[in-house]
Fold these 2 entries.
Entry 1:
Amino acid sequence: MAAVTLRHVAAAALLCLLTIPAQAQLSRLVMPGKTVEAHADIESQCGACHSGNSEAVQNSLCLDCHTDVSDDISGELGFHGRFESAVRNDCVNCHSDHLGRDADIVGLNGGTFSHRFSDFPLDGSHASAPCGACHTPGDSHRSASTACVDCHRDDDAHRDGLGQVCADCHESTVWSSVRFDHTEFGFNLVGGHDDVVCQDCHRDFEFDNAPKSCNGCHAVDDVHAGNKGTNCGSCHSVNAWSGISFNHFAETGFALTAGHNGLACEACHSQPDYKDAESSCVSCHAPDDHHQGRNGTTCDDCHSTVTWPDYEFDHSETGFDLDGRHADVTCTGCHREERADQAPTDCIGCHQADDVHAGQLTDGCGNCHEAADWAAPLAFDHDLSTFPLIGLHATTACGACHESQRFHDAGNVCIDCHTEDDPHEGSLGETCSSCHNANDWAVWSFNHNTQTDFPLTGSHATTDCGGCHGDSNVALSATPVDCVSCHRRDDPHNGEFGPRCDQCHTTGEFAERRR
């Protein structure tokens, strides 16, 4: 045992004394075999792949050179990034070196390799394709392209006009089987378009140049020769070119109802482009307008599209309801002017000839008369007039004051009706109500103190009216107010002291005198 140890020590000492080139020669002597051809250029550089006895360091040395594998592992891409054993184990577990120049240390078995651990899983026809169809012999497998066009360029009928992402339309099962969602390009294939082959619209394989307008494909089918524009879809349906579908209301704002619905287009549209027709009734029905334009151009205010002679009109929309006898009057009974909107809306406008009041009661005939019957008994509140009826006036017949229906001809002062009853013969003016009242003409009240300039005091207050005014009612206003006019006979001075008896005498007693 001691001898063996001594030999080992001697060999180690000898190795330490050797020069570096000599160490390299020794490394070759202890190397287990030649490296593979790919590592031949670094065969003498043991430290490029080996670091003592640390396998972890050795593994990192492999990845320092094979950066593409390192990137796959960190990015979880390719076989080394997807296959769990390749990620977890060291490189040397699968790839041994020093097996000779011609050794295959990759160890790939095309028959057992699962492409699902690559960046290009095989499905459809790809699954049965031989490896050499995509992988060129002599090149690394990872260098094979995953772009469809790199393998199918000769199959590309579009001549690269639609880009290189063939899988957008083609399937891996059969190259000629096309999968394409036309709605993604803003043109849904519905109706008759759904059964059309691609080449009917796409005349070349550069599909981006296909027209999207109807006229782009159907110009040859346009019997209007372009007169109706290029928006064929406004009238024609995608279900069948010969079928016409046109929403007249949605497109023009003019609904074709009733009688209009069955008309041929040319009945209103005389020009081939259909742009000449107007939407006003009178533009077509001027010859049918027996109003001769007097009622304007909006015929549909009264007439309907069902039949021209029939009409219906809600007169309440004008602010003048037709009630009572008005409901039976013909239109021309009130509308005598050239235009319907010029007909009067006040009573007197139509009933002036019937106005027995000669315009005295203004134009508000409806204040008294009713629309049901013009001559019906009237209801009139005299209290709302300038002459309220009180006392005996309330029971007096209208004709007693109003000799005719020109009611304003009747006066509104007492004397206008009571001239014959006036015993004063007008000497006291026309305001009989100053003394008399409406309850009874013979009943009167008069305050001499407030209604005259001669207050009755003393003996005057008890003196009979005739004592001063005599027996005549006519002379009431002419009665003198100076003392001597009544008391001349009582004047013992025979007028020597003038007519102002009240300077000495009082109204209490004439014989009394002031002190």
Entry 2:
Amino acid sequence: MPEGRYRRWLVALAVVALVARLPGVWWGSNFPGGWLTHHPDEFTHVNHAQLLIDPGYDLGFEPTPYPRGTAAHVAAPWLVARVARGAIEQPAPARLPLLLLGRVIVVLYGVATVLVLAATVRLLGYNQRTALLAAAFLALGGLHVSQSHFFLADVPGLFWLLLGLYLLGRDLAKPDPLRLGWAGFAMGAAFGLKLFVIGMPSLLLAVLLGPDRIKRLTIAGIFFVAGFGIITMGSYTTHELFRTLLAGTNDPYVFPLGMGVLLYVIQWPAIVSLPIAVLGVVGAAIAIQDGLRGTSHRKWILLLVVLLPAGLHAMFVILKLDHFPRHVLPLVPWAMLLAALPLGRALNRWPGRPARWGVAAVLLYLAIFVWDGERVFRDDPRNEAAAWLDSNVNPATPIWWKTHSWVEKYRHQWFTVEQQPEVLVVQLMDANHYVNGIGWPNSYPANHENVFDEVFQRRLEALQGIFRGASPYREVARFTEGYHMPEYRFVHQLIGDRSRNYVSTVVIFRREST
């Protein structure tokens, strides 16, 4: 395939990736009564952006010491625009415009990651067709699509990580201190966004494998610090980094390791789709075979660019105590690469219509898979729950809706053993923690130390009593995502509502009169 045609295909796939991701930016805009952001972690980055724009801004609470890289992406253009207008002293803007700008920026990162993956596939020695297949799979990449329109650090951090690994591979192919430096810069940016460390061993080994190690180590170190400093606008102190690392390793929860791994395995088809999961297994066998037969040079590239970082991240996912599907996001591009290998080989051996129809069938399936996963952002069950409250609950009625207490129309009360509001609005992705824990549906963990929400024992028992039917509350309404694809439905039935995208079934309970 001529290089010009190959590049045109990449541009077309970038457009597909953009179209798949961009509509999700408006998630929450159709919430009854006005916009309501639904992803709890987005507020971390919005709050930090407000503080970067206006250091004197009063949040009303102590912000978490999370890396500032994501927030800086929004704060930097905002500050530049203010300087250009001569209005630098204005107070920090409201949350909504910062949120929207942040989501759009993350969408662009998601699209750019598709192109980096294609370049990496070529670097590993595979042909244009395989690179295009991997890029197409990531363009319609399940979890990567939904995570690419949240104002979070996961997708931007993954972009810089993959870019750094790609540049490392280029340096291994032809040692170049400047290229190694830019790889270090990308790794530093990934660290400043998400504290990604899984590329650092590869960076160190690449330094040691090249000539003039002291020079290469110095350049890589300087560029790494520069990437970290620039991406965070120099706002992340050593003290804050230490606090963040401590907060990330001192979770009080005690979870069974084996069951946690099993839950990720069960959820994997709902993260990447069933065809990609199956093709990935076949592709893994092909990759192992290619690695064993490859030259020593190719083996080093495969080890440092793919196997070592992917293996380290898989280890971190397994050992991480809080169980969320988005933690496996950095493994998704490699899954797309592996899935592309058998189809790429089939196209090479049988370039006629049957192989092409097979590829078209997989892409069509992925498109439907993404559509089914993305439409729930428009038809969010929370929208239906809010509309039901509006029609059936008096505004003066005390209600409990976790993370949605700023819906001003109602009188909100926190649910405790002593204080039990008349109406409870429960999202099953939250209830999953205390109803299922790290276990099968309705397993009801008996010890509060096994529950992610860090609830006290008496409150845990009270929350479980709601679902056991051992409380004065009775279910009065239920609003589901209404998934069609078998992967989503299977996971829900087998292990409960462990939302992959923070959209889940909403159940409303009402306390019976006594």
